[in-house]
Design goal:
By secondary structure, this protein is mostly helical. It has helices at 3-17, 44-52, 58-74, 81-98, 101-107, 112-129. The protein is elongated and about 70 Å long.
Length: 131
């Protein structure tokens, strides 16, 4: 054990003897689940650093953008130019997600892919009926 480790242990031990850890919030409760448990141990520190810095993986950002496009699409007139543009944008985002292994996993989530496809199909049927 290094000198630094021994000093840290000594400080922790004296703080515990003084009772400085007695009234901490969450004392006696289980630790929260590790949200990086699926990440290999040697990468966890990096993932936590990125997460704490506000980094969002591209697939998650694409999914968020897809939801925004879907919300806008739901509020537009079905046969408008804006609806056609939003539909093309949603298809492009879905294609990008489908090309990524993590994106495919997001699209397979319960009900999500079906909602996207239904909304796109509804938009297509409305735009085709207006031709």
């Amino acid at each position: 054990m290094s000198l630094l480790d021994r000093l840290a242990d000594a400080h922790i031990e004296s703080a515990a003897q003084r009772g400085e850890f007695d009234d901490l919030p969450g004392a006696g409760k289980p630790l929260p689940a590790d949200d990086a448990a699926h990440v290999p141990e040697h990468l966890r520190a990096g993932y936590r650093l990125l997460k704490n810095a506000g980094y969002v993986p591209p697939e998650i950002e694409s999914r968020r953008e897809l939801r925004e496009v879907e919300d806008l699409l739901a509020r537009t007139l079905p046969e408008s130019d804006e609806a056609r543009q939003l539909t093309r944008r949603a298809r492009w985002i879905e294609l990008q997600l489908a090309q990524s292994p993590r994106g495919r996993a997001l699209l397979r989530e319960s009900g999500y892919s079906n909602r996207v496809r239904k909304r796109l199909a509804a938009s297509r049927s409305h735009s085709n009926s207006g031709r």
